[in-house]
Design a protein that fits this description.
By secondary structure, the protein is mainly beta. The chain has two domains: 1-30, no CATH class; 35-156, Immunoglobulin-like (Sandwich), CATH 2.60.40.60. Helix content is 6%, strand content 52%. The chain has a six-stranded mixed beta sheet. It has a three-stranded antiparallel beta sheet with strand order 6-9-8, with no helix packed on it. Strand 1 (17-21) and strand 2 (24-28) form a beta hairpin. It starts with a helix and ends with a strand. It is found in: Secreted. Keywords: Calcium, Disulfide bond, EGF-like domain, Glycoprotein, Repeat, Secreted. Residues 1-45 form the EGF-like calcium-binding domain. One of its GO terms (molecular function) is calcium ion binding. Pfam families: EGF_CA (PF07645), Fibulin_C (PF22914).
Amino acid sequence: DIDECAIGSHNCSAAETCYNIQGSFRCLSFECPSNYRKVSDMRCERINCFNYLECQNTPVRITYYQLNFQTNIVVPAHIFRIGPSPAYAGDSIALTITRGNEEGFFSTRRLNAYTGIVYLQRQVSEPKDFLLDVEMKLWRQGTYTTFLAKIYIFITAHAY
C-alpha cells in the first residue's frame, strides 16, 4: 500500500481531508450543519436550540470517524464502540443506525447500560464504502441527550 495522503499524490481539494485506505485513498469533507460550529477537525457541536423538543431530538455533538477493513474480516465483527464519557450510575443509552445501513450489513447492540457497539453482521464480498449515521440517545437524570457518530467505513480488497 502506498500512502497517497502522506506523499501528496492524491487529488483532494484544500477543503477535503485525504484518508489512506488499502490500495487507494478517499477525499473526505467534514462540514458542520447550520446551528453547529466546528470544534475540532472531526467534531461539530450545537450552538443552541430553541425549544425542549429540539434540544432532545437534535444531536448536541456530531463526531466523524473513519474505519478501514478488508473483505475477509470475520463476522460478526465488532467495529465501533460508543458510550458517554464519563459515564455515571443511572445512565442508559439507546443506539440506532439512522442512515447508511439500507442493505443490512451492520447492526448495534448494548453491552451494558452505558456502552454499545456497532458490528458488521454480514460478510461484504467486494470493496465497498459506507457512511453510517449512528445515533446514541443518552438517558441521564431524567433527560435524553442525542449524540451522532458519522462513521465512514471502507471495505477494501484483502491482500493475498
